[in-house]
## 1
Amino acid sequence: MLPLPAPESPADVRRHNLARVLRHLADHGPSSRGEAAAATGLAHGSLTALAADLVGRGLVREAGTSPGGGRGRPRQHLRTVPDRVVSVAVRVTRERLHLAVADLAGRLGHRADLAHATPDGDPGALADALADAVRETAATARAAHPGAHLAGAFLAVPGPVAADGRMFSTDFGWPGPVDLGALLRERLGDTAGPVVLANDANLAALAEYRALAVRRGTAPRSLAYLKADVGVGGGLVIDGRIEAGAHGVAGEPGHMPVALDGPPCACGGRGCLALHLGPEALTDAAGLGGLRAGRGTEAAVAALGLALAEGEPAAVAALDAAGEVLGAAVLAVTSLLDVDDVVLGGYLADWYPWLERGLDARLTGRRILSAGAAPVPVPVPGVLGADASLAGAVALARETVLADPASVPPL
C-alpha cells in the first residue's frame, strides 16, 4: 500500500479524504454512505460531498438499495467502477517485454509478450523498444476501454531504482545510473500518461506477500523475497509496505558477497551471490554454456529445466551446489533482518525440489538465531511464478490511483 502524504492544505485534506473513501469501497465492496462514513471516521455530510466528487470523476456509482433498518428511506449503496481507470503494466527482462492492460480492480485484459534485442550499454535503444511497445499497448487499452482514464505506464525493471528515478542495472551492461523513465517520457510524450519505474524484485515481493496473506488468512509482519531470473534480486516487505532503503537497494541480495575470494563481479566486488545463482552461472555449471552463447540465456535456462526434469547428473549437481549457496544467503538475510518468512521466486521457485537438498545441508543445525530467541524461517517457493513482477506492477498502478483519486479528471 502506498503511504498517503500528510495533509497540509485544505486541498490536501480533501485529497486525503477522497482516498480514504475510494479505498474503503475498493477494499470492502458496496457500502451505504452511512457505512462508509462509519468505516472511515468521516462525518456523514463530508462523506456525501466526497462521494459526489468520486461519482463525478466516474470512479464510483450508485449501486442499488437495501432496507434502512427502520422507517427511513432505503439506503443507497455506492460501488467502484473498475473500468473507469486502466493502466499499462510492463515487466522488463534482458530479452523480452511482458505487457498487460489492467483496470482498477487489478483485472488483466490485453497482454503482449515481445522480444527485444537491444545492445548492451545502450539505454536509448531499450527506451526506444519500450516506447514502441507501451505506445501500442496504450492505444489498445484506449480502444478496448473507451472513455477510461489511462493512469500511466508502470514498469517492473531489473535493477534498483533510486528515489530520484535513476535505475542501476548491470544486467544491461550500463556502467552507471540511467534515468530510464526520463528517456521513456521523452519518447512517449503524453500518449501513455505518467511513467513510473520500480524494481522488479520489490514488486514481486509485494505481490507474493499479498498472495501469502490470502493463503494464510493473515498477513505476516515481514517477508524477505529472493529471486533469480534475469539476475538475482530480492525485496523486503514490512507491514505490507516495501522497504527500499535510502538508495533503493534494501533487501537486494544479488551483490551480497558469499565468497570473499570468489570471481570478480561487474559491480566491483568479488564472489557476489549473483555469480553463483545467476542464470549464466547455473547454465554454465550444468554444461550449457555453449547453448547460452549461441541461443541466449532464456534458451539455456529452459534447457536446464528440462535437464533437471530428466535427472541429468550435471544439472542436478549444479542445483545441489546452488542450494548450498542459497542456504548461506538465507542465513545471512534472516540473521540480519529477523523476518517472519522467506519466499523464493523465479527459477528458485520452479527448481525448488532440486535446490532443497543443498538448502537443507546448509540450514540443518542452524534453525535457531540469537541463542534460541528466533527460529530461522524455512524458505518456501512463491506461487505467482513469472507473473509476480507484473502482478506487482498492476498493484502499484492500482495503489497509485487509490492514493490520489483527484488524479482522475471529472467526466
## 2
Amino acid sequence: MSIKQNLRFMIKNRFRGFYPVVIDIESAGFHAKTDALLEIAIVTLKMNTLGWLQIDDTLHFHIKPFKGSIIQAESVAFNKIDPFNPLRGAVSEKSALASIFKLVKKKISLNCCKKGILVAHNANFDHNFLMAAAKRIGVIKNPFHPFTTFDTAALSGLIFGQTVLAKACQMAGIPFDTTQAHSALYDTIQTAHLFCELVNRWKRLGGWPPNTSHRKKQDEMFNA
C-alpha cells in the first residue's frame, strides 16, 4: 500500500478532522447542572493502516459529588453507587477531567485532528454532564466539540433495529454481561466495541472510503 493510500486511512480523514472518544457517565440523577456526576470512563480509538477502527487506551474515575450537588435516591438505587463510600477511591471532577482532557488532547495531536468528539450510547445525556462538569471546573480548556456527538443508540437503531445497548451489542455479535451493566467502565468498553463494529461494518459494505464510480453505478440501477 502506498503512502498516498495510507493517508486515506488516517482517523482525521474518516471523521472530518474530529477525534472520536467513547464516554460513559454514571450520575445521581438526570439534571446535568444540579445532580452529581459519580463515575466517568473513556476509551480512545485508533485506526490501523488498513483503515479499521480499534480500541486504544482507557481511563476510569469514581467522582466525588460536587459541593451542593443533588443525589437522587432512585438514581443511585438503580446504578448501585454509594457516593460516600470511602472505598470508591473517588477523586474530584477537576482531577478526573484534567487527566481525561490531557489524554484526549494528546490523541488529538497525535492523530492530526482538530477537536475531540464524544461517542456515547444516548449521547445527549453524557455530553450534557461532561459539559456541565467542564464549566464548573472552568480552568481547563475543554477539547470536546460543544454540541456535535456520535450516538451509538441512533446508529444501532439504523443498522440493527435496536437502541438498547445490550441488545445492540448482541445483534453485533459482541458479548454483553448484564450483571456488569451500569458500570461506567464496562459500558464504555462495550460501547467502544459497538462503535468500532458499526464503523467497520460500513467499511466492509463498501461505504468508506467513498467509491464514487460504484455509487454512480448503483444510482443508475436504482433510477433505471
## 3
Amino acid sequence: MPTQSFSAADLDVIVPNLHRRYSGVTATNRMVAPKLAVRCRAAWFGSHAPEGIPRMGAVDLLHLWGRRRPVIWHARRNNEMIAGVLLRALGWPLKLVFTSAAQRHHTWITRWLIRQTDAIIATSDISASYLKREATVITHGVDTDVYAPPPDRAAAFAESGLPGAYAIGCFGRVRAQKGSDVFVEAMCRLLPQHSDFSAVLVGAVTPEQMPFANELRKKIAAVGLTQRIIITGELEIAEVQRWYQRLTIYAFTSRNEGFGLTLIEAMAAGAALVAARAGAAEIVVEQGVTGVLVPPGDVDTLVAALEPLMRDPAAAHAMGERARARVIEQFSLEAEADKIAAVYRRLV
C-alpha cells in the first residue's frame, strides 16, 4: 500500500528498486528516497519501500505512458537502467539518471547504458574517473538521527548477550569481497589476548556463500571462540542499527567496494574505525583522527591497527566521537538529498 497519496500525473521522479534481495545499494536508496520526496514529487517503484515516500505500482506506471511532461527515472543498477531505456523506447517520457559507485572499468553493457542517460551521478571522484563522461560527484550521506550513539553503550552491549564488555564488528554480506575472512582471522588472533571483547559479523549468508561461511565457522571453532565470534545472518534493518550501537570498534575489511555505506553508518553511531583502503574510505576517514586506514586484505596490518584500540577502549570511544562529528559535518543525508535534487532540477 502507498505510504501517502500521490497523483501519477503530477509525478516528477521515480525511484526504482528492482532487486528483491536486500543489499547495500537498497539501503542507500531507502535512506535518501524519503528526503528526496520532501524536495520533489517522487515515488518508489519496486521492493523494500521505505516509509516517507509514496509507493507506486505497475498500474501507476502505465498511467504515465504518453505523458508529455517528462519524469525522472533514477536508477542505481544495470537492470533498472535497462528497464528505463526500454520504457522510454516504448513511449514513457523518462529522463534517465544513473548513480555509479563502482571503482573499476565498466562492462560493455554498462558503458552502453551510461551513454543513454541524461545525467550521471558518481559517489566519489574515483568512481567518476571510470565513467568516460561528465558526472556530478555526490557522496553518500547517512541519517545521523537514525544512526546515532546509544544513550548507554555498555547497556546496549549487554543487550547482545555476548561475553565481555565491548564489541567489535564487521557488517555486510559474508563473502571474500567484503573481507569477512580477513576479519575472522584478525579476531582469532586478537580475542585470546582481549577477553573483554567479543566480535560480530552482521550480514546475510547467501546459499552460494554457505561453504565460505562454514569454513569461517570451522576456523572460529578450532580456536575455541564460538561464543565470542558470531555470524548473525540476515537481520531486519532495525536490528542492524541496534548492532551498530553495541560496537566500540568497527572494522571495514572490504577488498573492493563501491562506496561502503557501512563506513559512515558506523561512524555516525560513534564507533572507532579501522578501514581498508577500499571504496570511499580514503575520503571519509581522517587518518589517526576519525579512524585508521590499512591495506585491503592485509591481516597483519589490520591486527596491528586494531590492537591499540582494543587495549584502550577510552581512546576508541574518543575516536568514535570524532568520527560522528565528521559525518555530521561532511556526510549528512540532507546534503546528499539537496545535491541530488539539484541534478533533477537541471533536467526537468
## 4
Amino acid sequence: INHLSFNEIDIGDYRTFLKFDPPVRGEDDRQATIEALASGLIDIVVSAHAPAPAEDKRLPYDEAAPGAVGLQTLLAALLAFHHEGRIPLIDLMRTVTSRPADLLGLAAGRLAKGAPADLVLCDLNAPIVIDLEKLKSKSRNSPFDGRRLQGEVKMTLVDGRVVYAPADRQSS
C-alpha cells in the first residue's frame, strides 16, 4: 500500500517514516502501479507491516531502518482508490481478501458456508485522521500520520470472534 500511496517527493526533508525497502519511486511509477492494480496485473495488496522501534527510525535518513506500521492503515489507504473512482470497491477488496487466500491455498478471504468468519465491519465514508498516538502497534512509525482518509473500522472478527471493537462497541 505504501508504494501505491506515496512517491519520492513525499519523503521531503528525508522523512524516515517513508523509508521503505524497496524505496518509493517517482510519481510516474506510482501512477503506473495504480494502473497495474486497476487492470488486474497486480492482484494482491499488502500492508507491508514492518514496524521499527523509534530509535531505529529517528536517525539520519541513510542510517534509519526501513519499514513502517501498516495493519491499521491498510484498509482506509486502499479505500482512497475507491473514493477517487479509480478502482471498483469489489476489486479492491479482492486484493486483500480472496486473492491472497487463493495464493496461499486457504479457505479464508470470502463469505461462504464453512469458511472462517473473518470479517471487518467498516463505515466506508467515515472520515478519519491517522494519528500515531492512536495506533495499536507498539511501534509508532507510520507514513500516514496526519493523513485524512475515509473508512473507519468499527469491528473486526476472526473465525467469528470479535478481536477488535472500540470501547463504545464492546458491550453491544
